[in-house]
Structure formats: structure tokens, C-alpha cells
Design a protein that fits this description.
It is a single chain. The chain has 365 residues and is an all-alpha fold. It has helices spanning 2-6, 25-48, 56-66, 76-111, 123-136, 146-166, 174-198, 201-212, 220-236, 241-247, 251-256, 261-283, 289-301, 305-329, 338-361; strands at residues 10-12, 15-16, 167-168, 171-172. The strands form two sheets. Strands 1-2 form a two-stranded antiparallel ribbon. It has a two-stranded antiparallel sheet with strand order 3-4. The protein is globular, with a radius of gyration of 21 Å.
């Protein structure tokens, strides 16, 4: 009986209940500073590298000139390339990457599983249905914004549908939520296939390009479209870090410690939906950022959410900015789809993570 009392109850999926981890302020500060430095360097490099090269000094001079800190303006072509093509793309990569990374950390905290990511509850698939449907049906009621708005609304609606279908007796069980998400993902895939079947060749090409994920169509209006959702989600998420740490103990202990588990779960799922739907609406389907980044940071600094949530936002921005730079330059003058590139790199990591988890658990049974 003593042995049974001393063995921590499992939470499922290979996690055990533990006391909230002790913070590592020095490690967290170093990681934060390192991520910020790398992000700044990547942003500057991405702004200058491309078919039309702009030296780093000129990029800095133009930025300083625009914000009134001296510097000088570049020639007309360089200014246009920098401010109308490169910088909107860099800023969009930062916002989308931060949104996906933060959403992944929140999902893993809510489900108590380091293998969770935003697509589990159907956000990406629902947004894809909205975008593909708008393209296949030839909808243009909002002009160039039609596909983006339809994707965003459909992503949010899908999450609400999954959550409503998962509730029973005023509660939502994690397993039921995941299984409902799987079913909705399958149904969304069928709808996408149906839309593609009835689309013409031009529409199929547009649908395929959108599904592959890309920042090639980045503009300042698209940045402004995702900015409010990203800022709200990224600002709200860190305030739930302490409750996520308590939730890691298990639902019953968390309730005894004063956490309203159901309300926390609803709030975080809505934040995840807001972040992911906005990101998918402007960039298409980009996978594995929300899975890979939080897990790497968890390995580096432990599972404490006070660093993990904002750190995952920074890490996601770094990964997507680097990925977009690689997508533009690896096969130049052609451009690789960003979603394909992240999947190529993320899939082997996911397989390694599965093997590692299985090995540490001694099997799944």
C-alpha cells in the first residue's frame, strides 16, 4: 500500500502528476535573450536577402530613416522592395510563427500531452474548408479578403462545434475532445475533397497553393488582419501559465487548489482558436511549428509554463522566419512552399519524439 501511495498517478499519454516545476530564471533569461537576438538577426537577413539583394547596412539605414533616427532613404527600387515586399513578409512570418508556437504550448498544457498541437481539435482543417469553399464556389463578396475571412470564420466555428459536441453533463473530457476533433478533421477532409472535385483547373491550382502554406502573398493589409488576433492571444496566454502548471498535477488536484478546470479549458481553447485561425487564414496550413517549438523549449528549460508560453511564441517566430528565408533561397529562383518545408523538417522530429516517448514509457500499453 505504501508503494501505491508513493507512485504518482498518471495523467495519460505518458505524463505523470508532479509538483509544479521550480523556475529556472537564469536559464529562461538566457534562452529569451538568445531567441530575441536570433529573431532580430533573421529578420534583418530576411529583409535583405533575395532576388534583389539589399545590404544589411542599407536595410538598417532605411529603417532608421523611416522611424526618424537618422539614416537615409534608398533608391526607389530598393525602398519599394524592402517596404512593400520584404518587410511585410518578415512581420507576417513573426506574427504567424508566434501565434502557432504559443497555440501549441497552450494545447499541450490543456491536454497534458507534449504531442498535442493546434490541428488536433480541427482548427486548421476547419479554416481550410472555409478557404477552399470560398475558392471553389467563386465567392468574392469581400474582394481579395474573401478567402481570408472565410477561413478565419470557419476555423473559429469548427472549434466551437467540436467543443459543443464534446460536452456532456456540463463537462468536457479531454479524450472526448480529441476523438471529436479527429472525426471533424476527417469530415473536413471529405468536404475539401468534394470542393476540389467540383472546382475547375484554375481553382484547383489556387486551392493547392493555399493548402501548401506560403507567405508569398504577404502585404501590409494582411499583417494588419492578423495583428489584432495575434496581439490579443499572445497577451492573454501568459496570464494562464500558473493555472496550467497546477493543471499538470491532474484535474482533481487542480480543482482542490482553486482552479476552475472547465473555465480554464474553455478560455484556452478559444485563445488557441483565435491564434491558429488567424494564422491559417493568412498563411495557409503550416504544420509542426506548434508541436516542435514548445517541446524543444520544454527539453531546454523544463515544463514550467511561465517561460514556456511566451518562449514558444518567440521560438515559433524564429522557426517560421528562418523557414521562410530558407523557402525563398534554397531553390532560388523558385520558392518552396513553406508548409511543405516545415512538414519535411517536422515529420522526422515527430517520429523521433514518438519513439522517445514510447521508449521512456516501456511501450504504450
Amino acid at each position: 500500500m505504501t508503494a501505491l501511495r508513493e507512485t504518482p498517478p498518471t495523467l495519460g499519454k505518458g505524463l505523470s502528476a508532479q509538483a509544479p516545476p521550480a523556475p529556472r530564471p537564469r536559464t529562461a533569461a538566457l534562452l529569451t535573450a538568445g531567441l530575441l537576438a536570433v529573431l532580430l538577426l533573421l529578420a534583418l537577413l530576411s529583409a535583405g536577402i533575395g532576388a534583389y539583394e539589399i545590404p544589411l547596412d542599407d536595410v538598417l539605414a532605411s529603417v532608421h530613416h523611416r522611424i526618424g533616427l537618422g539614416g537615409h532613404a534608398l533608391d526607389r527600387t530598393a525602398e519599394s522592395v524592402l517596404w512593400n515586399i520584404r518587410l511585410p513578409r518578415v512581420v507576417l512570418a513573426v506574427l504567424v510563427g508566434a501565434s502557432l508556437g504559443c497555440a501549441g504550448a497552450l494545447m499541450q498544457g490543456v491536454f497534458g500531452n507534449p504531442l498535442a498541437e493546434p490541428g488536433v481539435i480541427g482548427i486548421s482543417a476547419g479554416a481550410a474548408v472555409g478557404a477552399v469553399g470560398a475558392i471553389a464556389l467563386g465567392l468574392t463578396f469581400l474582394g481579395n479578403w474573401t478567402v481570408t475571412v472565410c477561413a478565419f470564420v470557419a476555423g473559429l466555428a469548427t472549434v466551437l462545434l467540436v467543443y459543443a459536441m464534446s460536452r456532456s453533463g456540463g463537462r468536457t473530457e479531454v479524450v472526448t475532445l480529441i476523438l471529436t476533433g479527429i472525426a471533424v478533421n476527417a469530415f473536413a477532409g471529405a468536404l475539401i475533397g468534394l470542393f476540389i472535385f467540383f472546382a475547375d483547373n484554375a481553382q484547383v491550382t489556387q486551392i493547392t497553393f493555399w493548402q501548401l502554406g506560403s507567405l508569398a502573398q504577404a502585404t501590409w493589409p494582411k499583417v494588419l488582419a492578423v495583428l489584432p488576433c495575434a496581439l490579443v492571444g499572445l497577451a492573454v496566454a501568459p496570464f494562464h501559465a500558473r493555472r496550467l502548471d497546477l493543471l499538470a498535477l491532474g484535474e482533481r488536484p487542480a480543482r482542490h487548489l482553486g482552479v476552475d478546470v472547465e473555465r480554464l479549458r474553455v478560455a484556452l481553447i478559444l485563445v488557441v482558436a483565435l491564434l491558429t485561425a488567424a494564422a491559417v487564414a493568412v498563411a495557409g496550413i503550416i504544420t509542426f511549428v506548434g508541436l516542435l517549438v514548445p517541446h524543444l523549449l520544454r527539453m531546454a528549460n523544463g515544463p514550467g509554463h511561465r517561460f514556456l508560453v511566451p518562449g514558444s511564441a518567440l521560438g515559433g517566430a524564429v522557426v517560421l522566419t528562418a523557414g521562410d528565408l530558407a523557402a525563398r533561397t534554397v531553390a532560388a529562383p523558385a520558392e518552396l512552399p513553406l508548409g511543405v518545408l516545415t512538414a519535411l523538417l517536422g515529420s522526422p522530429f515527430f517520429f523521433w519524439l514518438l519513439r522517445r516517448t514510447r521508449r521512456r514509457q516501456g511501450g504504450w500499453a
